[in-house]
Every structure is written in structure tokens, then in C-alpha cells.
TrEMBL record:
Pfam families: Bet_v_1. Signal peptide: none annotated. Belongs to the MLP family. Residues 2-152 form the Bet v I/Major latex protein domain. Coiled coil: none annotated. The lineage of its organism: Eukaryota, Viridiplantae, Streptophyta, Embryophyta, Tracheophyta. This is Bet v I/Major latex protein domain-containing protein.
């Protein structure tokens, strides 16, 4: 059995892909205020939340447990509305040698949109399970952020 893998989830959203991409490229630090699944996020190293060399420290819930990790931005593709994050440290290093998150805001046919999260990972051993709890986590976060984006848009239209 391979220790490496890739899993993903794609959820239809009401917010426009541009709004989603803007949120994750310019307002990532606000996610902790929008969803109860994220307990805290703080800038660990660097001066800018959205710079590739900055390190963020996250505390969040996976599989009913509070976990922590560090995160950096590996790359940002504005044209494809895609961001690649690297997670490490904390609870990640206990289970995974490699843990890459890929965020994509996708425009669908007919003007609808979706958000896709993919996890590329390498487990430290065969006893460690694939990180399926992260897919559930992303499903909750996507729904919470989508509701927030819609509320923000409605308030702006008043």
C-alpha cells in the first residue's frame, strides 16, 4: 500500500469565484472569525499574512480533536484562482511527511461556482490513515464562509 495519496472535495457555492479567491488571498486571517471549526490563527513569522514567506500558526478541529500546525503559501495562481499551501509542524508532523493543501475557486457552466480543496499527503507509516477528516473540515468551513460572503454581499447591497 502506498503511503502517498491525494484526496479532494468540491462543494457548490453561491459566492462568486472571485470573492472566494479574494478571501483566501487577502483576508485569510478572518476565517477564524467566520467558522467555529477554526479556533485561532496568528502570524507566527513575517509581517504579512499573505506573503509566501510568512508562517501562520493555526488551531482548529479535525475529527473532533483540537489540533495545531504551521502553514505557508507555496504559490498563488491568480488566473486559475488557485492557492497552494504547505502545512507542517504541530499535529501534522506526527502523521505526515508531506501535507499540501490546494484551494481552487471554480467557475462552473451557467454562472454557478464551486470551491475545491485537495490534500496531497505522504503518511509517516501504514498505521496512519489518509486525512479524510480534513475533507469534512473543509465542507464545514466552505459552508460557513459561503454564508458569510452572501451576508456581506447582501449588506453591501442595502
Amino acid at each position: 500500500m502506498s503511503l502517498s495519496g491525494k484526496i479532494s472535495t468540491e462543494i457548490p457555492v453561491q459566492g462568486a469565484p472571485e470573492k472566494w479567491f479574494h478571501t483566501y488571498t487577502n483576508q485569510l486571517h478572518h476565517i477564524q472569525n467566520v467558522t467555529h471549526k477554526v479556533h485561532a490563527a496568528k502570524l507566527h513569522e513575517g509581517d504579512d499574512w499573505h506573503a509566501n514567506d510568512s508562517v501562520k500558526h493555526w488551531t482548529y478541529i479535525i475529527d473532533g480533536k483540537t489540533v495545531t500546525c504551521h502553514e505557508t503559501i507555496e504559490s498563488v495562481d491568480e488566473q486559475n484562482k488557485r492557492i497552494v499551501f504547505k502545512l507542517y509542524g504541530g499535529d501534522i508532523d506526527d502523521k505526515y511527511k508531506v501535507f499540501i493543501l490546494i484551494f481552487e475557486a471554480i467557475e462552473k457552466d451557467g454562472g454557478s461556482a464551486a470551491v475545491k480543496w485537495s490534500v496531497e499527503y505522504e503518511r509517516v507509516s501504514e498505521e496512519v490513515h489518509a486525512p479524510y477528516g480534513y475533507l469534512e473540515f473543509f465542507d464545514h468551513v466552505i459552508r460557513d464562509v459561503d454564508a458569510h460572503l452572501l451576508e456581506t454581499q447582501e449588506n453591501a447591497n442595502k
